[in-house]
Amino acid sequence: MQRRTFLQSLFGLMLLPVNAIAAAWNKAAFEASTLQQATAGLSIQTEVPSDQISLLAPDKAENGAVVQIEMVSRIPNTEAMALFVADNPTPLIANVMFAAGTQPKLVTRIKMAQTSQVKVVAKVGDRYFTTSKQVIVLEDGCGGTDTDAKFEPSMKMRARLVGEVTEVKLIIVHPMTTGRSKNAAGEIIPAHFMQTITATLHDKVVLEAHCSTAISKNPYFTFYVTGAKLGDQIMVKWQDNMGYAGQGQIAVAV
What is the mean pLDDT of the chain? Predict the structure, then answer.
């Protein structure tokens, strides 16, 4: 999609009623069971390997339920980055879109079912650039670890100005269940996960992330915004697949 269309989709999302936001979530791509289907669902075309994309991930993950990932694109005018784990039950982990002024850089924690290639695809205009890394997983993080507990969401945020860039960290208390675990009675625990996260500065969207069940429990994100000053308010809103929603805001500090 072109940048104008991309920005229109961001602002359009903010105007939707909260129970309609999930309609923008790409069901076909996120529920695809193969990497090829997932990339096709995002209309990703020819991918060009690039050393201008960085993917920081552990060589070996003891616990596949919590694998920290950092993805960065140094390619000018990067509009979006998609994160995949090739051998997960559903390979598409997240699709993150960046407005002008937001650095194409994100830190999060994900679930991995087994040893697999972790892959990032950056969208720049109508071109796609990629890098990947093999991560060894010692314990399956995608099934059998969820619990059936009372849902009590909350959010913690921090926004710290470093030079001209504001580093925003947030953690949202949310179960992020996959729909593949059972409770003590042997019943399937339904999938319950955040689908969309939207961050705004000066009432303008700076980042929009669409997520799958493979974002780790109590999702953690760090992203980077330019143009903020001390005292400016950054707001984050989220919605999940069951219609629950929440929001929080924080003043930029040092």
Answer: 89
